[in-house]
Amino acid sequence: KTHYKIAVLPGDGIGKEVIPEGLRVVKAAAQRFGIALELVEFDWASCDYYAQTGSMMPDNWKELLLPMDAIYFGAVGWPAIVADHISLWGSLLKFRREFDQYINLRPAQTFAGVRSPLAGRTAGDIDMLIVRENTEGEYSSVGGIMYEGTENEVVMQQSIFSRRGTERVMKFAFELAKTRARKHVTVATKSNGISISMPWWDARASEVASAYPDISWDKQHIDILCARFVLSPERFDVVVASNLFGDILSDLGPACTGTIGLAPSANLNPERRFPSLFEPVHGSAPDIYGKNIANPVAAIWSGAMMLDFLTNSKGAGHEAHDAILAAIKAVLISGPHTPDLGGKASTTDVGKAIAERL
Amino acid sequence: KTHYKIAVLPGDGIGKEVIPEGLRVVKAAAQRFGIALELVEFDWASCDYYAQTGSMMPDNWKELLLPMDAIYFGAVGWPAIVADHISLWGSLLKFRREFDQYINLRPAQTFAGVRSPLAGRTAGDIDMLIVRENTEGEYSSVGGIMYEGTENEVVMQQSIFSRRGTERVMKFAFELAKTRARKHVTVATKSNGISISMPWWDARASEVASAYPDISWDKQHIDILCARFVLSPERFDVVVASNLFGDILSDLGPACTGTIGLAPSANLNPERRFPSLFEPVHGSAPDIYGKNIANPVAAIWSGAMMLDFLTNSKGAGHEAHDAILAAIKAVLISGPHTPDLGGKASTTDVGKAIAERL
Ligand SMILES: CC(C)[C@H](C(=O)O)[C@@H](O)C(=O)O
Ligand SMILES: CC(C)[C@H](C(=O)O)[C@@H](O)C(=O)O
Questions:
Q1: Does the beta carbon of A133 lie inside 6 Å of ligand 2?
Q2: Minimal-distance CA residue of chain B relative to A255
Q3: Domain boundary, last residue among B243, B263, B283
Q4: Which of residues 134-173 of A touch B (CB under 8 A)?
Q5: Which domain CATH number covers B175?
Q6: Does B313 touch chain A if contact means CB atoms closer than 8 Å?
Q7: How far is A249 from chain B, CA to nearest CA, in Å?
Q8: B290 alpha carbon to ligand 2 midpoint, in Å?
Q9: Do A257 and A206 share a domain, yes or no?
Q10: Distance CA B22, CA B214 (A)
């Protein structure tokens, strides 16, 4: 394949400011490495669209997105217009599920120029990849309320893990570890407290691990695992976790590196039956929207992951990814810097500076 | 009441080393402040007992413990003899549930003499109390496996929150905030992802909060909340959380202060219908057991919380608590220090040094 179709969904708030900069860099890299991109921008999957139409997306959203090779997503959510659960479950979480994007891949790395809140940690000390199950588990939406409105009221919600859903995320993590220097997988669990689903999750980990004799692995309970992210983050390489635990770890990991505002993510359907989605981890940030001061690095880095994925982590897309990351690293050191990193530059300034290095 | 009966359950591993030091200090404080204690030690709720009898506790454990005012617990677990889920669910988690110890109270504080892993944080910067729901929620043990052994296998586990169980933990947190300088409650949630039980949890928080107009409060999703524990821990005062989220936060909070090995906990039945249980957060630590090098501070601090609770956070027990904490703080600065804090002192040395200051 030499030509890729990308749906661009800037969404809400600073999504609309950072995605243009991401596109600037993605286009520059695509040109340099000879990747032909067809970009199709949509204004839906946004709260503005909801305000006009009463739904987050048009009825034929699936039809429109299915022919795409990837979705480049900004951020969604504008609580003043639409309640979070409506905007999120009406767009982002719908994509993850209906496009079977069962891997949420999120790196956490220390960089020169970005201060880690942990004492003494500098560039290169922390370098982990968090592999989050992205479609099932604790986010099942199955459950309900009993005795509603009485003093006996009880709410129940299921965590649901399928063998297929669990095995595939474990396999993805172990395959990923093969490509890494340290070749280690940490499995997040809580089987001493969550006594039915988590021991079962552990059993799936053991089964899959036994097929990878060259990959070392261990499992750690989520409580002590979070503590160790703070106490000894350099020990982690690939970390695989359920939907909820992965959600927690992929905010905590970047927080420990000081890069929470810079963190990218890839919502992958590795088999490419459906388009995968690439988005910054940060949200729409109503408090800073409109000032052109949002840091575009998370969106740009997400764009780099997209190019890498399009060409199977090989060839032109892979080179483009590495070139973008090198440009990001250079600009994190030299500036320009947006206010979150102590600078005075605008979103546009940073996007241009990164694009110029390509 | 002027006479209190305490069941002492050292349990396994370093529980058997730290509890004697805790008792040394508790006895010294009780004597100084005129509190009459009757201590009854049991060797069960331990894996040794399991190895001899095939169960973690005698059949009449409830009868034996019910007359007690408190349980002073060491640690349980010795995976080489008994699987964790058997030892834990056969003792500690049984107490929490059957004695309706619905509050798990866990402080996290920075101290002089203990290095925080966070850059620039020193004594007094972090001072939070984590209020963990301790009997229901994600630890329900309700669920099961379907299509077992086939490729369609699915495991499900319920999270179950009752109105009574949720309201009482919220009330406890808001009442506690009244006694604090900053009077702020943070409610941990994940209502944007866990779409049935957590919005319901948020509604209970709002209801209870409305009865406390003088207490400020906010709710934060667990992912960003964990990140903020690392990025701006000084902003937290009282944090209330479900069983699972409280478990995570009460390892992460102490980790951020550098005191994870020093962290105490109180498993409370505030109405005193059943005995409450006081235990260090750390486990039985098979790797260091038998060397007399475990840090006894967590056990000693838990003993202080016990004395405070016995007299309703007033009078002699409250004074004893504050005196023990002052002695702990002094010894953390001057030493002796166990190896985990960079010293060469024994468990006994530290226990004696703290007791001598009383
Ligand atoms: C051992 C385990 C079941 C327990 C829990 O998760 O409650 C422990 O982590 C704790 O925090 O007391
Ligand atoms: C917004 C929210 C539902 C979402 C999640 O929990 O998955 C976000 O935190 C994320 O990590 O992408």
A1: no
A2: B227
A3: B263
A4: 138-139, 141-145, 150-164
A5: 3.40.718.10
A6: no
A7: 7
A8: 45
A9: yes
A10: 37
Give the closest residue to B188 by CA, choosing from B260, B139, B137, B153.
B137
> A9: how many CB neighbours lie within 10 A of its CB?
28
Tell me which chain A residues have a C-beta less than 8 angstroms from the C-beta of B142.
Answer: 196
DSSP conformation class of A233: G
Query: Domain boundary at B229, B263, B297, which?
Result: B263
In Å, how far is A246's CA from the nearest CA of chain B? 9
Q: What is the pLDDT along chain B (358 residues), one digit of tens a residue?
A: 779 999 999 999 999 999 999 999 999 999 999 999 999 999 999 999 999 999 999 999 999 999 999 999 999 999 999 998 899 999 999 999 999 999 999 999 999 999 999 999 999 999 999 999 999 999 999 999 999 999 999 999 999 999 999 999 999 999 999 999 999 999 999 999 999 999 999 999 999 999 999 999 999 999 999 999 999 999 999 999 999 999 999 999 999 999 999 999 999 999 999 999 999 999 999 999 999 999 999 999 999 999 999 999 999 999 999 999 999 999 999 999 999 999 999 999 999 999 999 9
Whether B259 and B110 map to the same domain: the answer is yes
Q: Where are the alpha helices (DSSP H) in chain A?
A: 15-32, 47-53, 61-65, 84-89, 92-98, 163-178, 197-209, 222-231, 243-257, 297-310, 315-334, 347-356
How many folded domains does chain A comprise? 2
Inter-chain touch B192–A256, beta carbons under 8 Å = no
Instruction: Tell me which chain A residues have a C-beta less than 8 angstroms from the C-beta of B93.
Output: 193
User: Based on the domain organization, do B233 and B274 belong to the same domain?
Assistant: no
For residue A281, how far is its CA from the centre of ligand 2 (angstroms)?
8
Pair of tokens at residue A5: 């179709």
The residue segments making up the domain with residue B6 are 1-101+269-358
Statement to judge: residues A124 and A232 lie in one domain: yes
Distance from CA of B326 to the nearest CA of A (A): 26
Q: In what order do the strands lie in the sheet with B143-146?
A: A143-146, A154-162, B154-162, B143-146
CB of residue B247 inside a 6 A radius of ligand 1 = yes
